[in-house]
């Protein structure tokens, strides 16, 4: 996105100017889940920058929302750190997913593309089984997929939207964690994706913000439950990050020209800036960290 974005995650950089601030050209709208193919400027998911150092050598990972945004950044980082990855995404996102599959293969790792709908319990079970069949097991589950639709008034939130938001963000987490824990050996990790919205709900994101608070509570409870098995469960809570979610109805289109400028760092984050958080929580470097939430939000205060 900028010259500086060509630097990897180890280079000394000024975080306030490392990536651009939004302007009027950022106002855009996509129907459905949205794709990176149609987003401008294109988010930085570390495609040309993320440098791995073998921190996940030989690991077997499942990542949801793997085609775009934060999930894409996590997949690229996991592969460059040495992991094989099963990629979950919606069938309509095939073009984005193809690029990610290619990047994993370029890193010399195995990519298994397995599109489907996380609102469906049987797909969630099949996704974990896919890792067992194709990778020989699962030791990292990164739940990154999510649904976010802005609505001015509670009267505009249909039961259908409410249901879809909870099915995508909460039920799928329950189904995937349940299936994964059955397969996981000691040392395995689960990373769930919450949001600043869990603590600072926007008036226009009532249903979405509720799911993110649930994800925090679910993850802390599950962390305590599976700790004796040697399985760790942690959370990444992003702030405003430039991804397809935001221009596919996640924010009012008009608000995108100001997206992320309210943070102390004064700009939106890029997916590449989330990847090290997922890698840290997936790897043995975080061996004594469980039930924790890692906020990556440009400095917005959290509880
Ligand atoms: P994104 O649109 O790139 O990723 C979301 C992904 O969710 C999609 O690519 C899609 O593959 C997946 N998904 C949605 N519904 C699905 C379904 N029914 N079945 C299967 N997959 C489905 O956007 P992102 O911002 O990278 O989102 C990743 C996560 O980060 C989400 O959980 C989101 O809530 C969270 N988050 C994002 C922000 C932000 O500002 N972008 C802030 C806080 C939290
Ligand atoms: Mg997508």
UniProtKB/TrEMBL annotation:
It comes from the Bacteria. Keywords: Oxidoreductase. The keyword Transferase does not apply. Pfam families: adh_short_C2. Residues 1-52 are annotated as: Disordered. InterPro entries: NAD(P)-bd_dom_sf (IPR036291), SDR_fam (IPR002347). Residues 1-19 have a biased composition (Polar residues). One of its GO terms (molecular function) is oxidoreductase activity, acting on CH-OH group of donors. Belongs to the short-chain dehydrogenases/reductases (SDR) family. This is SDR family oxidoreductase.
């Amino acid at each position: 996105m900028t010259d500086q974005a060509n630097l990897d995650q180890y280079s000394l950089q000024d975080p306030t100017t490392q990536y651009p601030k939004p302007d009027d050209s950022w106002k855009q709208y996509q129907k459905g889940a949205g794709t990176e193919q149609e987003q401008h400027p294109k988010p930085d998911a570390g495609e040309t920058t993320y440098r791995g150092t073998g921190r996940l050598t030989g690991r077997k990972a499942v990542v949801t929302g793997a085609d775009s945004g934060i999930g894409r950044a996590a997949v690229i980082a996991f592969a460059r750190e040495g992991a094989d990855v099963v990629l979950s995404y919606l069938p309509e996102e095939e073009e984005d997913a193809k690029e990610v599959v290619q990047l994993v293969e370029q890193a010399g790792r195995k990519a298994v593309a397995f599109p489907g709908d996380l609102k469906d319990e049987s797909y969630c079970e099949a996704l974990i089984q896919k890792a067992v069949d194709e990778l020989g097991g699962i030791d990292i589950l990164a739940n990154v997929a999510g649904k976010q639709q802005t609505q001015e008034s509670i009267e505009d939130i249909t039961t259908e939207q409410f249901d879809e938001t909870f099915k995508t963000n909460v039920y799928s987490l329950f189904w995937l964690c349940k299936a994964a824990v059955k397969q996981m050996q000691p040392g395995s990790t689960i990373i769930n994706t919450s949001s600043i919205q869990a603590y600072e709900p926007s008036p226009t994101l009532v249903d979405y913000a509720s799911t993110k608070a649930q994800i925090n509570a679910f993850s802390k409870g599950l962390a305590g439950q599976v700790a004796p098995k040697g399985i760790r469960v942690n959370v990444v809570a992003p702030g405003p990050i430039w991804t397809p979610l935001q221009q596919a109805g996640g924010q009012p289109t008009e608000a995108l020209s100001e997206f992320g400028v309210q943070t102390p760092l004064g700009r939106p984050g890029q997916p590449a800036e989330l990847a090290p958080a997922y890698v840290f929580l997936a790897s043995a470097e975080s061996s004594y960290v469980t039930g924790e939430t890692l906020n990556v939000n440009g400095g917005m205060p959290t509880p």
